[in-house]
Design brief:
Length: about 350
């Protein structure tokens, strides 16, 4: 069966979605909704055989659309996802799931009422690097997880169409832009430990609107003493991400670097040390290099996400469920509360 996709939103990332769908086996791009003549003109050039509309509701009314990819500013996610479920469509929803927990709940209700599948686009889980860390934990090669660090250093964000990414009403918070990916990864890596119990955070900005943090760091803590430190700086240059996980019997570190986050020629590496006993001192053995199975980077993960979503429609099991998407939003909002109130906040997930 071919999964027929409609894409709502055709700016920078929406055009990437459309391109990934168009080349995916088992998928067919049948319709695109854009909100400007310019974006629809670009869509016509790149996808001349695809139906175009300026009204997303017309796309939802089409019989030749099975699943809708919603790739629009964050504040519009709830409206369009709920409308898609009301129209009987499956939904692949770009992160964040929504700007608030209550909006996430309304999307979840609409998904349950419709009986259709909700997939949240936390595609880093499919990465040959960040997803591989999870595999190493699940295989027991690191022992019991103890500590995780994820750090992003990058240039300032693109403005987005009409500057929406710098409008706090539309973006919600920069916590919901990129750091939310890492907030999704941490509980996934530590899945066997249960949910994190508390969070603390610190951040600042260059006099921007509320929620637009140039620098932000948070610490998630689990009941058994395990913890994760996640840090994001969007006031730098280039795009560099590092993740390291330490367990009772090993450790892994992954690095990704490029001039831009959507680079197709990044520098990517992973190193692993295992079979540790706890008695090691300075002269531990050298780590081994892990050969990546495929290129790493969000444009590559997007291709894999579309292929995985096609399979999810058949199996009924999403890569990231709506409940998991809601959890990531809840943790991000709790991190902002912890920062603003300068205290550790208990999590009720």
């Amino acid at each position: 069966m071919t999964a027929r996709f409609g894409v709502i939103g055709f700016r920078a990332w929406g055009s990437c979605y459309a391109g990934a769908i168009a080349k995916c086996g088992g998928a067919k791009l049948t319709a695109i909704a854009g909100n400007t003549p310019e974006s629809l003109g670009r869509a016509a050039e790149k996808h001349p055989d695809v139906a175009l509309t300026a009204d997303y509701r017309e796309l939802l009314a089409r019989d030749d659309v099975d699943i809708v990819s919603v790739v629009v500013p964050n504040a519009l996610h709830e409206e369009m996802a709920v409308a898609a479920f009301d129209a009987g469509k499956h939904v692949l929803l770009e992160k964040p799931m929504a700007n608030s927990i209550s909006a996430c709940d309304r999307i979840l209700d609409a998904a349950r009422d419709s009986g259709r599948l909700l997939c949240i686009a936390h595609e880093l889980r499919l990465s040959s690097q960040w997803g591989r860390i999870k595999s190493l934990v699940s295989e027991g090669r690191l022992g019991d997880p103890m500590y995780l660090t994820i750090e992003l250093w990058r240039r300032p964000y693109r403005s987005g169409s009409d500057g929406w990414r710098y409008d706090s009403d539309l973006v919600g918070s920069w916590m919901l832009e990129e750091i939310i990916h890492f907030v999704d990864l941490a509980p996934w890596y530590f899945e066997d430990l249960g949910e994190p119990a508390s969070i603390s955070a610190a951040g600042n900005s260059k006099g921007r609107d509320a929620g637009l943090y140039d620098n932000f760091s948070l610490t998630l803590r689990w009941p058994g003493g395990q913890y994760a430190v996640i840090s994001q700086k969007v006031a730098g240059f280039d795009n560099d991400m590092t993740a390291g996980l330490v367990g009772t019997a090993g450790a892994v570190r992954a690095q990704w670097s490029a001039a831009m986050n959507r680079s197709d020629t990044p520098s990517a590496s992973m190193r692993l040390i295992e079979d540790l006993t706890g008695e090691e001192r300075f002269d531990i053995s050298e780590p081994q290099e892990i050969v990546l199975e495929r290129p790493s980077g969000e444009i590559f993960e997007l291709d894999t996400l579309i292929s995985h979503t096609v399979k999810s429609i058949e199996s009924g099991v999403p890569l990231v469920s709506g409940e998991e998407g809601r959890r990531a939003v809840a943790i991000c909002r709790a991190a902002e509360m912890a920062m603003n109130e300068r205290r550790e906040v208990d999590l009720d997930l």
